[in-house]
Structure formats: C-alpha cells, structure tokens
Amino acid sequence: MRSTNVKASVVGTIALLGSAGCVSLDHQGMDDEGDGADEVGAAVQPLSTVTFRSSSTATGKNVTSLAVARPAGVAQGDVLIARIANRDHVEAVIAPPAGWTLLRSDQSASAIRSWVLWKVASGAEPASYSFGFDVSAYLAGSIVAFSGVDTANPIDAVSGQKNGNSASLAAPPVTTTSASRGARDHPTC
Length: 189
Fold this sequence. Notes:
Elements: E1 51-69, E2 79-87, E3 94-95, E4 101-108, E5 112-120, E6 128-147, E7 160-162, E8 186-188
Parallel strand pairs: 7-8
Antiparallel strand pairs: 1-6, 2-5, 2-6, 3-6, 4-5
C-alpha cells in the first residue's frame, strides 16, 4: 500500500495566484503492487488546489492606521495575505491586527516601505482589519484571500527585493521545498 501526502501551500505574496496539488499513485490507477487495485484501509488524500477567492484594497492620506476590508466570501481556513505600504516614512513601525504574522518587510530607496503579512481565517473574522503605525503617513494596502491552502504550513518559501527608482520591477526566483506547492515573487517598487 502506498499513500502520498497531498499538501497545498502558498508562497509569499500579495501577487500570489497559483495552484498546488498532486495525485497519489492510487489516483493514477497504479499502486506499489502494480495491479491498480485499492487495498482495504488504503489512505488516499484528495487533490488539493489553491484557489484565489477575492481581494480588497484601501488607501489613506496622513493617517496612523489603515483599515482594509475583509475580502468578500472569506471562509474559515482561507489564507489571507496582506501587503501594506507607506510613503516617505521608511522608519515606520507597523502594528498589525491580532493573528497576523509578518512575512517580510522591504524598503525601496528612501521613500517607500512595505510589509507582507499573513493569517489563516477563523470562523469569526471582522469586517475589516486595522493596521496601525507609529507615524502619520500616506498608506495603501490590500488583502488577498485563497482557499485550498495547507493551513498547517501555508507559507513554503518567500522571495523579494527592492528595485529603487526604476520603471521596471524585477523579482528573484523562488524555489519551493515541495513539487506540490506554488510559488510567486514579491517585487517592491
């Protein structure tokens, strides 16, 4: 008997749109014995696909907090990824809402700083999430919701870089630790 553990993890960023999953040998019609027959008690997990659910955005001028609405249709177990950016205050310190985990922070030249955070949605999510700051600044943010993510290990790998004052964005590659996980980059302008 052979079983393949199927996991789906998101990698990295607000730009993330991807799918993950794999099919066990049993789903391919072949098992270790080569007869294609299911054994009694065989553990087969279903195909898992990371799916974009929805997103929301917000902006503020000279504010110390930014409220970003919960993306439409968020359900328990969805993975939420937020990207918050400020202008002209690279020294700013973010105070995320309860339950959010900082994934990375990037500073571009001397004008823009951004943070990427994530969380797994519970059964009782608020209507919006308020990200606080220790300075008054121009703020912009977005939250993207994904379903079908392995909530025990939702982030597989992260990549990003600052691009300074440039007309084009470039991001370094991401290498995942599992063939069944998607990957995306996080360039910062």
